[in-house]
Amino acid sequence: MPEEELPGGHCSRVYADAHRVLKVPFRGEEMDSGWRALVRLPVGLGPQIYEIEEAAGGVLMERLRPGTSLAGFDGDAEAVFASLALGLRGASTEGMLPLSQFVTPSPLADRLLATSPEPVFLHGDLHHYNILRGQDGWRIIDPKGVFGDPAYEAAAFIRNPIETIGSEPDLLGSLRRRIDRLAELLQLHRSRIWGWSLVGVSSTDRDVDDPWARVEVALRDLEEEYSAELG
Questions:
Q1: How many CA atoms lie within 13 A of 182 on its CB side?
Q2: Domains of the chain listed by start with CATH number
Q3: Which of 41, 124, 220, 226 has its CA 20 to 30 A from that of 200?
Q4: In the 8-state DSSP scheme, what is residue 159?
């Protein structure tokens, strides 16, 4: 079995050898819905699965090569994201976590949940670093295993990669452009993409110099433009 430990996430340990990756969750939704979502990704959208240990939620899978993330891509990253997000929508939602149990409650989250359209399968954290290049195209890793409003899927992508977007001189304009572009590509209401993007970044205890704080402020500055469209 793979023995080289790779940098893991908040909820899993990850081991690898030259060709395989072993992901072993130890807390959170990845112990239940996360690994189930990983093995349920439509063919061609995720790594090839070799073995599953259901009791522990462990998954042995293909190691994606070269494995570079979408964060370093100098092409149309939004088009890549949209193609993958649309490809996920047909996956089964059985055993996935309802979005209402995944997001932090707030007046805006409650408003979005109360007006949600027909729910779909969601990765739940589909940003640049969870999209890696494989030998034959872009692949998805580390799904949370959620189902709900399709507009939620764009939220993590809108806010990333934080290392670059958080320092953009025209952050407001950049966020507006990305929201509107993804709304067009995904055929979704831009107000809902804006709303979920703000829900996911809202916090009361960040330093003002934190790039996440800059993103939150910019999204709040767009409230007058987008909020009225929510109805």
A1: 29
A2: 4-62 (3.30.200.20), 71-230 (3.90.1200.10)
A3: 41
A4: T
The Cα–Cα gap between 50 and 63 comes to 11
Closest CA to 80 of 41, 45, 122: 45
Radius of gyration of the chain (CA): 17
User: Tokens at residue 161, please?
Assistant: 């990669």
Q: What DSSP string describes 149-185?
A: -GGGGGHHHHT--HHHHTT-TTHHHHHHHHHHHHHHH
Distance between start and end Cα atoms, the chain:
53
- Tokens, residue 189: 């209401």
Say which residue the tokens 């042995």 belong to: 60
* Range 92-111 average pLDDT: 95
Q: Tell me the per-residue pLDDT of 112-126, one tens digit each, with 9 for 90 and over.
A: 999 999 999 999 999
